[in-house]
């Protein structure tokens, strides 16, 4: 799987998006699917950039691969910031404050609703978020 | 196998070796020929150089020896003349002694020539024709000179070459010693005179006052050439006598001719004027003419003239010139006593003969060596070819052997692989396969692969068993699920105000669609169709939860939209997977036949009124349950679910469904679609659910044909019976609660 | 990201041009705040917007809240398909009653 490593800052979002776009373009991906993937990538990367390392510097690794049967793109985000599962929603906290303060709510929602599969794991000190989308 | 690897290897190796061998052998043979050629040329060149050098040096050597010869011979010859002069000088001194001191010597009688002494060496007195034979002083002089008679006898007698020796007195008398007294007597017995003073030797000596050699003159008497010498004697400053002697050239000839060497060499004696005194040439430029002396100075051969002049200057030398048109070497040496020169001629050929001989021998040796070389070269070539053949044979053998060795492990591997079954690990890397090269690597890989294969097969069997188990379980789950959904029979049959039918055909073993219908109370019937996002087990589980929640809330008697709102809130709570479900919920008031319904992102309701089906348009867009994120829901004044009411009449029918119906796709990628659905319904023979639904299903199948079912297909049909259809109601069973 | 403001009385029309992603949103939010203060009614024209991410939605949502709170109104028009899909998934469409 090809990958890039960039500092976890929103300035590098374009680089990450370009990296993924390159792989999608080789497969004649429909424009709206591509846009959804770009959106998911932005949401996840911005999340990492904003919250994974607090104010410290850190890196994010993005891996991207197009697989066959079915034709799909698999993108994996890795960071070694504090453990955080974006898919988890605090079950008990249904208060207004709780809802509004949860970070990346809309973003992750978008990712979950537009991607075919979203998986999270914490291994070897890294947050690993993997998304899949059929092309 | 078309050509075995072993054969291929063999062929390649042999080809390589053959090419190499042929190249080398060819190169070798070529080199040998070239070398031989060069050698031959070098030989010839060398030969020529040697010939030249040798001939030059031979020439030198020969020339040198010839020079030495001529010098020696000239000396020899000259010696004779010197001796002659010397003897004369000694005699002259004796004569001088006698004539200066006459008193000391008593005259002896000197006889006149006599025939008796013919041929004998005798002392004789000869008068000149002017002499006064009676002069007393003269006769005394004669008598005194006569005392030297024995001396003079010795001089002539002891020489091989002197003809005579005499002492001549100016008075006109000569005392002579020779072997031919008879020549002094005339035919009549008279004494022949000798006028010595006329003779060159006398005149020359007298003139020059020193020993004088006369030029060669012809002895008329003997028909020979002779040389005479005279030495003057002075007493009191006046000429008192001249001693003289003569040599005959013939006797010198012997010496001269001895000097000859070989057939092509000649000697030649020339006098002070360049005249040939003697020559062994019988003809030609140096030949002696019969008639007399030939002067070489008059020769037409300029070179010859030059040489003669050189020689007569008293030099010793050697020159090459054309003599009689031939290249000739002429060596010359002087005879200083007489001022003559001796020439020794030898033709170039003669000179070269020795050289030629030697070079011929050398050449022969060269030829021999070249021949030997040639044979050697052929030999070498034969050997090269033989070696090449041997090499090829060896290479063939070695190649075959090597090829086989190389291929053996491959054969072994092939054998082992063919025995591989996978049921057990049979491939082993035995010693044959431990070749220490790529073959060994391959063998190890195959061994690994065999092990993996074995493992995979084991796992596969396990997995297959597992799959079968899962499949069984899923079938179970299917059954459970389908059991969960109410079926029409025993629940609602016959004596109801309505008839209901429903079906749910999942795309996979378990589906995400569901339908539900239940009585909330005696008066109210709840109808539900729902479609969970996705398919398979996840959707099925979510479906179960949704279904349960909906029924729960509905059973509280809430309005449809309330039910949806509540269920939405609950579903949204812990929805990690982000699933959602579209729902249509309708609650029919059986007494008023009023239908109130709510819709969360679901399909439009179909209503059949007076035999005509139509879509009930949605009052607004609605969102599915658990679709929206909480913070969005927060913002909305009310959750976005559509609600509506319909007043139904008896005989009306309702149809609800999920998008598996409208989105059923055929092989040409055409969708069944809402239009076709409406169309199909309006063509339906009956709107009785139990007939309508199977009919619709059939139509869908006909449309889809062989294409795969993508989505779950769910239908729920309700028909309100007309008064006339109610069965068994007359007896009043209806309202027992 | 370019914006063009057209004043029509107390209605402010903002023509948006460009991608609305996490990078441009901070600036955009500030701009929206100013707009919200100025007008009672805000119309956003999305004709030139090919893409929007959650950061953009957040800006929109904040604008919506601000306008709602002051009793004003806020609507959008000329939304392209891809942006519309995002609106639907997040419920924005429904929030703004964007057609059926």
Tell me what the structure shows:
The complex is a heterotrimer of chains A (135), B (737) and C (100). Chain A has 135 residues and is of the alpha+beta class. Chain A has a single domain (2-134), classed as 2-Layer Sandwich (Heat Shock Protein 90). Helix content of chain A is 38%, strand content 29%. Chain A contains four helices and five strands. A five-stranded antiparallel beta sheet of chain A has the order 1-2-3-5-4, with helices on one face. In chain A, β2 and β3 (72-79) form a beta hairpin. In chain A, α1 packs antiparallel against α2 (31-52) and α2 (31-52) runs antiparallel to α4 (105-114). The longest helix of chain A has 22 residues, at 31-52. Chain A starts with a strand and ends with a strand. Mean pLDDT of chain A is 84; it is low at 90-104. Chain B has 737 residues and is an alpha+beta fold. Among the domains of chain B are: 420-484, no CATH class; 488-724, Phosphatase 2c, domain 1, CATH 3.60.40.10. Chain B is 45% helix and 21% strand. Chain B has 14 helices and 22 strands. In chain B, α1 (5-100) runs antiparallel to α7 (348-419) and α9 crosses α10. The two termini of chain B are 90 Å apart. With 100 residues, chain C is α/β, with parallel strands linked by helices. In chain C, 44% of the residues lie in helices and 27% in strands. Chain C has four helices and four strands. Chain C has a four-stranded mixed beta sheet. In chain C, β2 (11-17), α1 and β3 (41-48) form a beta-alpha-beta unit. Chain C is globular. Chains in contact: A-B, A-C, B-C. Chains A and C meet through α2 and α4 of A and α2 and α3 of C.
List the helices and strands and how they pair.
The complex is a heterotrimer of chains A (135), B (737) and C (100).
Chain A: E1 2-7, H1 13-25, H2 31-52, E2 59-67, E3 72-79, H3 96-101, H4 105-114, E4 117-123, E5 126-134
Antiparallel strand pairs in A: 1-2, 2-3, 3-5, 4-5
Chain B: H1 5-100, E1 122-127, H2 136-146, H3 149-157, E2 162-169, E3 173-178, H4 200-208, E4 212-213, E5 217-219, E6 224-235, E7 238-248, H5 249-258, E8 265-270, E9 276-279, H6 302-312, E10 317-323, E11 326-335, E12 340-347, H7 348-419, H8 438-484, E13 498-505, E14 513-521, E15 524-532, H9 536-554, H10 560-573, E16 581-589, E17 594-600, E18 605-609, E19 612-616, H11 630-635, E20 642-647, E21 653-657, H12 659-662, H13 673-683, H14 689-704, E22 713-720
Helix pairs in contact in B: 1-7, 9-10
Chain C: E1 2-8, E2 11-17, H1 25-38, E3 41-48, H2 54-69, E4 73-77, H3 81-90, H4 92-95
Parallel strand pairs in C: 2-3, 3-4
Antiparallel strand pairs in C: 1-2
């Amino acid at each position: 799987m090809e990958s890039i490593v960039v500092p976890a800052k929103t300035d590098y979002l374009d680089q990450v998006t370009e990296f993924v776009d390159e792989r999608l373009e080789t497969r004649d991906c429909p424009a709206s699917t591509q846009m959804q993937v770009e959106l998911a990538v932005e949401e996840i990367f911005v999340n990492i950039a904003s919250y994974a390392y607090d104010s410290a510097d850190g890196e994010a690794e993005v891996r991207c691969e197009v697989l066959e049967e079915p034709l799909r793109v698999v993108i994996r985000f890795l960071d070694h910031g504090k453990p955080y599962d974006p898919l988890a929603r605090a079950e008990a906290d249904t208060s207004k404050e709780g809802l509004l303060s949860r970070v990346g709510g809309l973003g992750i929602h978008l990712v979950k609703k537009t991607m075919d599969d979203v998986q999270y794991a914490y291994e070897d000190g890294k947050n690993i978020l993997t998304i899949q989308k059929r092309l | 196998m078309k050509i075995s690897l072993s054969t291929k290897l063999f062929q390649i190796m042999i080809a390589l070796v053959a090419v190499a061998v042929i190249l080398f052998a060819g190169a070798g043979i070529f080199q040998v020929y070239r070398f031989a050629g060069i050698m031959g040329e070098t030989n010839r060149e060398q030969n020529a150089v040697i010939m030249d050098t040798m001939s030059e040096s031979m020439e030198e050597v020969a020339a040198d020896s010839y020079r030495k010869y001529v010098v020696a011979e000239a000396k020899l010859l000259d010696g004779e003349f010197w001796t002659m002069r010397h003897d004369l000088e000694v005699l002259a001194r004796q004569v001088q002694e006698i004539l200066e001191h006459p008193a000391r010597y008593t005259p002896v009688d000197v006889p006149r020539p006599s025939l008796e002494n013919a041929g004998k060496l005798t002392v004789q007195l000869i008068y000149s024709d002017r002499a006064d034979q009676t002069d007393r002083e003269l006769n005394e002089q004669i008598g005194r000179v006569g005392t030297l008679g024995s001396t003079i006898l010795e001089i002539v007698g002891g020489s091989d070459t002197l003809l005579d020796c005499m002492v001549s007195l100016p008075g006109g008398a000569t005392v002579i010693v020779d072997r031919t007294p008879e020549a002094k007597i005339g035919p009549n017995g008279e004494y022949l005179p000798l006028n010595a003073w006329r003779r060159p030797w006398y005149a020359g000596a007298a003139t020059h006052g020193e020993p004088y050699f006369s030029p060669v003159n012809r002895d008329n008497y003997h028909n020979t050439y002779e040389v005479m010498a005279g030495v003057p004697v002075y007493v009191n400053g006046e000429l008192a006598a001249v001693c003289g002697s003569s040599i005959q050239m013939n006797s010198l000839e012997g010496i001269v001719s001895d000097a000859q060497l070989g057939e092509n060499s000649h000697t030649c004696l020339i006098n002070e004027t360049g005249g040939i005194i003697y020559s062994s040439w019988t003809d030609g430029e140096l030949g002696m003419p019969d008639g007399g002396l030939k002067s070489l100075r008059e020769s037409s051969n300029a070179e010859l003239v030059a040489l003669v002049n050189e020689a007569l200057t008293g030099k010793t030398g050697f020159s090459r010139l054309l003599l009689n048109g031939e290249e000739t070497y002429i060596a010359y040496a002087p005879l200083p006593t007489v001022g003559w020169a001796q020439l020794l001629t030898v033709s170039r050929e003669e000179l070269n003969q020795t050289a030629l001989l030697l070079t011929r021998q050398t050449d022969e040796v060269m030829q021999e060596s070249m021949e030997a070389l040639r044979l050697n070269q052929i030999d070498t070539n034969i050997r090269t070819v033989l070696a090449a053949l041997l090499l090829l044979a060896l290479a063939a053998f070695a190649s075959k052997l090597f090829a086989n060795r190389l291929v053996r492990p491959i054969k072994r591997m092939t054998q082992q692989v063919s025995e591989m079954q996978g049921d057990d690990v049979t491939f082993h890397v035995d010693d044959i396969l431990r070749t220490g090269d790529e073959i060994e690597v391959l063998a190890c890989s195959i061994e690994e692969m065999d092990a993996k294969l074995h493992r995979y097969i084991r796992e596969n069997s396990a997995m297959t068993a597992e799959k079968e188990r899962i499949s069984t379980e899923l079938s179970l789950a299917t059954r459970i699920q389908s059991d969960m959904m109410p079926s029409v029979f025993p629940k609602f049959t016959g004596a109801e105000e309505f008839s209901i039918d429903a079906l749910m055909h999942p795309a996979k073993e378990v589906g995400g669609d569901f339908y539900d219908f239940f009585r909330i109370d005696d008066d109210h019937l709840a109808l539900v169709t729902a479609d969970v996002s996705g398919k398979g087990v996840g959707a099925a589980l979510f479906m179960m939860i949704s279904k349960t929640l909906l029924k729960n809330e509905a059973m509280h008697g809430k309005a449809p939209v309330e039910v949806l709102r509540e269920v939405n809130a609950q579903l949204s709570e812990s929805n990690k997977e982000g699933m959602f479900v579209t729902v249509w919920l309708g609650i029919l008031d059986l007494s008023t036949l009023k239908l109130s319904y709510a819709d969360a992102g679901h399909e439009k309701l179909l209503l059949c009124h007076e035999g005509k089906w139509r879509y009930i348009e949605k009052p607004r867009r609605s969102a599915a349950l658990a679709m929206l994120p909480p913070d969005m829901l927060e913002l909305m004044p009310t959750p976005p679910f559509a609600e509506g009411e319909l007043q139904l009449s008896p005989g009306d029918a309702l149809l609800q469904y999920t998008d598996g119906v409208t989105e059923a796709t055929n092989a040409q990628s055409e969708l069944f679609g809402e239009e076709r659905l409406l169309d199909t319904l309006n063509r339906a023979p009956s709107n009785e659910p139990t007939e309508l639904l199977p009919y619709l299903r059939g139509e869908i199948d006909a449309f889809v044909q062989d294409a795969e079912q993508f989505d779950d297909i769910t239908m729920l049909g309700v028909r309100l019976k007309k008064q006339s259809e109610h069965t068994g109601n007359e007896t009043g069973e209806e309202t027992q609660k | 990201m370019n914006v063009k403001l057209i004043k029509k009385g107390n209605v402010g029309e903002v023509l948006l041009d460009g991608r609305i992603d996490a990078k441009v949103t901070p600036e955009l939010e500030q701009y929206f705040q100013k707009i919200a203060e100025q007008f009672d009614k805000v119309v956003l024209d999305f004709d030139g917007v090919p893409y929007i991410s959650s950061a953009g939605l957040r800006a929109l949502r904040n604008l919506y809240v601000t306008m709602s709170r002051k009793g004003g109104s806020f609507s959008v028009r000329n939304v392209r398909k891809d942006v519309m899909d995002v609106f639907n998934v997040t419920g924005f469409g429904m929030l703004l009653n964007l057609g059926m």
